[in-house]
C-alpha cells in the first residue's frame, strides 16, 4: 500500500472567521488511541518501528526533524524531513522512525491498536536505533531548518543519498573510516531554491583542501580566456584591483597578473594559499569576512571587480559574503559569480555534483530573488560550459538589465524549475540510473574485465558511496593530481594511483568518473593505455 517512508499534509478545507480557524485532517484509518506528547528542545523520541500499526502524528506546536528508514527494503537509505506546526505525518508499518525536536514541541499521536506501556518493545513497538547520541548532535549542530534565500520553513525533501562521507576527506589507509553525514537535497516551496539540509562546519570542509583547479587544462584555459575578456570588457589597467574569493591555487589570479592587473586571492585552505603565494600570486589565507575586507581596503584600497567561482555553491552565510563584497567594491564596482546550473543538473541527471561542500544548487531565478532581497541587480548573464553547465552572473548596485537575463529567465520558466514535481522526477531518474549502473557494472566484472576508474573528483565520493561500489568491485582509480595519489576514496577502500602504477595492472576498461573532462582525459591517455576502452558509468 505505501511506497514512501512518510506522508505529510497540512489541514484541508479551512474555515476562518473572527473567532479563529478550523483545519480538517482526514485519517487513513479509524483510531482508538490518542496520545498527547510534549517534548523538550534537542531531545529525541522514537528509534523504533511498528510491525503492524500506521503511526499518525499531528504537530500542534514547535518543529522537529523526522528521520525514517524502510527496514523491509535492503536498498533503502535514511531520509529526513522537517515537520512544521499543523502538519500531519503518516508513517506506515515497518518504517523505523526517530523525532529530533528543534524546539519545545507538542504533538498528537493518533493510532489504531494496542499501545500499552508494558508491551513496548514486545508487540506494537519494536526498538530500532536510527540515530545515536553522536548523530543526534550532528543534526542539532548542522541541520538547516530555513531556506538560505528567503528564510522560509517550507523545505521539502527531494532526494536522500543517506549518510555519505565528506567528498574531499580522502583517507590515508584502506582500513580508515570517515565520519558520514546525511546528504539530502531539499526544495523551497516559497522561492524554489534547491539546497542541502546540512551546513557542515566549513573548517571540516575547506581547511586542508586537495582539489586544485589548475590540474585540469580545461579549467586553466577557461580562466585564461575569461581574464582576457574581463580586461577588455571592463577596460582594466595596472591601477585596477580584482579580488577573487575562494581563489584555490591561483588559477584565475595568474592570467590577471600576466595581463598586468593587480589581483588578490582570498582562500581559506592553508595549503592552497601557501602554494599560490609561493608562485607569486598574492593570496590571503582567510574566509571572506569583515576583518579580511578591512585588511584589503587598508592595504590595497577598494576593488573594481570581485569574482567568486562556484563560491555560491559552497557558502552557507551568503548574505554576509555579498554584503562584505559590496563594502569592498567601489560605487561602480561589479560582483561576478559562476554557479553550476540546476537546469542542466536536472536535465542531464548530474546528481554526483551534489555533495556536502555544495550547500546550494542555483537557478538564475532564485539568484535574482536572493540579490533583489539585498537591493542588488543581476544585470548581465552568460551560460558557460564548466561542471556540465554553469551560469555566470554580473551583479551591481544600479545597472540596466541586459536582454541576456530576460531571455534565460524565460528558458528557466519553461523548464518548470519552480515546481517540486520537476525535482521529484529528478529523484526518480537518480534511482533508475543507480539500478542500471550497478547492473551493468556487475556484468562487466563478471566477464572478468580488468576495470579501473579514472579521476577522483569530489563527485566520486557521492557516486561510489551511494551506489555501494567499493574495492571488492574495483580496486583502483587513476588520478593526475599528485596531492591525491596514495590516498583512498572515503569509505570505499578504492586506492588512488598514478598512471605509472596503473600501467602495471594493464586495465582493459577505464571508467572516467571525472566525466566533465571525459574527452580530454580520453585523448591524453589513449596512447598510454592502448588496450583500454574509455567510457563513463552512464555509458556502460
- Measure the end-to-end span: 35 Å
- Kindly report the average pLDDT value: 92
Number of separate domains = 3
**In CATH terms, what is the fold-level topology of the largest domain?**
Rossmann fold
CATH architecture of the largest domain, by name, is: 3-Layer(aba) Sandwich
CATH superfamily grouping of the largest domain: Vaccinia Virus protein VP39
- Tell me the number of strands: 28
Protein architecture, described:
This protein has 540 residues and is of the alpha/beta class. The protein has three domains: 1-143, Sandwich (Jelly Rolls), CATH 2.60.120.10; 214-418, 3-Layer(aba) Sandwich (Rossmann fold), CATH 3.40.50; 429-535, NAD(P)-binding Rossmann-like Domain (Rossmann fold, 3-Layer(aba) Sandwich). Strands 18-17-16-19-20-23-22 form a seven-stranded mixed sheet. Strand 2 (12-17) and strand 3 (20-24) form a beta hairpin.
Structure, briefly:
The protein contains 15 helices and 28 strands.
What descriptive keywords fit this protein?
Rossmann fold; 29% strand; five-stranded antiparallel sheet; 540 residues; alpha/beta; seven-stranded mixed sheet; globular
Indicate the topology.
Elements: E1 7-10, E2 12-17, E3 20-24, E4 33-39, E5 44-49, E6 55-61, E7 64-70, E8 79-83, E9 87-91, E10 95-101, E11 105-111, E12 126-127, H1 133-142, E13 155-165, E14 180-188, E15 194-196, H2 202-206, H3 217-233, E16 241-245, H4 253-258, E17 262-266, H5 270-278, E18 283-284, H6 290-300, E19 303-309, H7 311-314, H8 318-328, E20 329-340, H9 342-347, E21 360-361, H10 364-372, E22 377-384, E23 390-396, H11 403-414, H12 420-446, E24 451-454, H13 458-466, E25 476-478, E26 495-497, H14 499-503, E27 509-512, H15 518-525, E28 533-535
Parallel strand pairs: 16-17, 16-19, 17-18, 19-20, 24-25, 24-27, 25-26, 27-28
Antiparallel strand pairs: 1-9, 2-3, 4-11, 5-10, 5-12, 6-9, 6-11, 7-8, 7-10, 13-14, 14-15, 15-21, 20-23, 22-23
Amino acid at each position: 500500500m505505501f511506497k514512501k517512508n512518510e506522508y505529510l499534509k497540512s489541514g484541508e478545507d479551512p474555515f476562518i472567521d473572527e473567532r479563529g480557524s478550523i483545519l480538517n485532517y482526514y485519517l487513513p484509518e479509524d483510531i482508538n488511541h490518542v496520545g498527547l506528547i510534549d517534548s523538550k528542545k534537542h531531545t529525541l523520541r522514537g528509534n523504533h518501528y511498528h510491525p503492524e500499526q500506521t503511526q499518525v502524528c499531528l504537530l500542534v506546536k514547535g518543529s522537529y526533524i523526522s528521520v525514517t528508514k524502510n527496514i523491509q527494503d535492503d536498498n533503502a537509505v535514511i531520509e529526513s524531513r522537517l515537520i512544521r506546526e499543523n502538519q500531519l505525518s503518516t508513517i506506515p508499518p515497518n518504517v523505523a522512525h526517530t523525532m529530533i525536536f528543534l524546539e519545545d514541541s507538542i504533538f498528537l499521536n493518533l493510532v489504531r491498536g494496542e499501545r500499552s506501556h508494558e508491551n513496548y518493545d514486545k508487540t506494537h513497538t519494536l526498538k530500532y536505533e536510527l540515530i545515536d547520541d553522536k548523530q543526534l548532535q550532528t543534526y542539532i549542530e548542522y541541520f538547516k531548518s530555513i531556506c538560505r534565500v528567503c528564510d522560509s520553513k517550507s523545505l521539502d525533501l527531494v532526494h536522500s543519498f543517506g549518510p555519505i562521507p565528506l567528498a574531499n576527506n580522502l583517507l590515508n589507509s584502506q582500513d580508515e573510516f570517515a565520519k558520514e553525514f546525511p546528504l539530502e537535497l531539499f526544495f523551497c516551496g516559497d522561492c524554489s531554491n534547491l539546497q542541502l539540509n546540512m551546513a557542515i562546519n566549513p573548517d571540516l570542509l575547506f581547511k586542508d583542501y586537495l582539489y586544485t583547479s589548475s590540474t585540469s587544462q580545461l579549467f586553466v584555459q577557461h580562466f585564461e580566456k575569461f581574464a582576457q575578456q574581463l580586461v577588455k570588457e571592463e577596460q582594466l589597467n595596472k591601477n585596477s584591483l580584482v579580488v577573487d574569493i575562494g581563489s584555490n591555487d591561483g588559477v584565475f589570479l595568474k592570467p590577471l597578473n600576466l595581463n598586468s592587473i593587480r589581483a588578490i586571492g582570498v582562500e581559506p585552505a592553508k595549503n592552497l594559499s601557501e602554494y599560490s603565494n609561493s608562485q607569486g600570486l598574492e593570496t590571503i589565507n582567510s574566509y571572506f569576512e569583515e576583518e579580511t575586507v578591512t585588511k584589503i581596503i587598508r592595504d590595497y584600497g577598494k576593488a573594481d571587480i570581485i569574482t567568486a567561482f562556484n563560491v555560491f555553491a559552497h557558502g552557507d552565510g551568503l548574505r554576509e559574503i555579498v554584503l562584505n563584497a559590496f563594502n569592498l567594491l567601489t560605487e561602480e564596482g561589479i560582483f561576478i559569480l559562476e554557479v553550476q546550473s540546476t537546469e542542466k543538473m536536472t536535465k542531464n541527471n548530474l546528481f554526483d555534483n551534489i555533495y556536502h561542500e555544495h550547500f546550494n544548487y542555483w537557478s538564475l531565478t532564485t539568484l535574482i530573488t536572493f540579490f533583489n532581497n539585498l537591493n542588488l541587480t543581476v544585470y548581465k548573464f552568460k551560460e558557460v560550459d564548466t561542471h556540465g553547465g554553469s551560469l555566470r552572473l554580473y551583479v551591481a548596485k544600479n545597472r540596466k538589465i541586459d536582454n541576456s537575463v530576460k531571455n534565460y529567465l524565460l528558458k528557466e520558466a519553461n523548464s518548470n524549475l519552480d515546481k517540486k514535481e520537476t525535482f521529484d522526477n529528478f529523484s526518480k531518474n537518480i534511482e533508475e540510473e543507480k539500478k542500471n549502473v550497478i547492473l551493468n557494472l556487475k556484468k562487466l566484472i563478471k566477464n572478468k574485465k580488468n576495470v579501473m576508474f579514472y579521476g577522483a573528483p569530489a563527485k566520486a565520493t557521492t557516486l561510489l558511496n551511494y551506489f555501494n561500489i567499493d574495492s571488492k568491485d574495483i580496486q583502483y582509480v587513476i588520478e593526475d593530481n599528485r596531492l591525491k595519489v596514495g590516498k583512498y576514496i572515503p569509505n570505499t577502500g578504492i586506492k588512488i594511483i598514478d598512471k605509472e602504477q596503473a600501467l602495471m595492472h594493464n586495465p582493459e576498461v577505464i571508467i572516467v568518473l571525472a566525466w566533465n573532462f571525459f574527452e580530454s582525459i580520453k585523448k591524453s591517455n589513449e596512447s598510454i593505455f592502448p588496450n583500454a576502452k574509455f567510457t563513463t558509468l552512464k555509458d556502460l
